[in-house]
Hints:
Blueprint: H1 2-22, H2 26-29, H3 34-42, H4 47-54, H5 58-83
Helix pairs in contact: 3-5, 4-5
Amino acid sequence: MKKFAIAAASAMLGATLLFAASVPSAYAAGKVDCDAVMNELNSGKHAKEVAKDLSISTSSVYRCKKHAKEAAKASTSAMTAGTKGTMPRAPEAAPTTK
């Protein structure tokens, strides 16, 4: 009887894990269009208004805002890193010997 209970519990655990792995994540279904969010924010709307208009949470609005800020910072640092350094030198004239 004890072996049967262990086998049944193991089978139920296996079935539960199999089912959980096959169900897509709830977060994957709710992708947020950050471009639309940023367009709304740049037009002067508040985060709460944008969230209501796009039917998303305010935390999603703030997350998009954070990602946009990080992307802008990364592109700015990449641009300044490209301009740092020395200017390329003009090719030197070859000495003439006669």
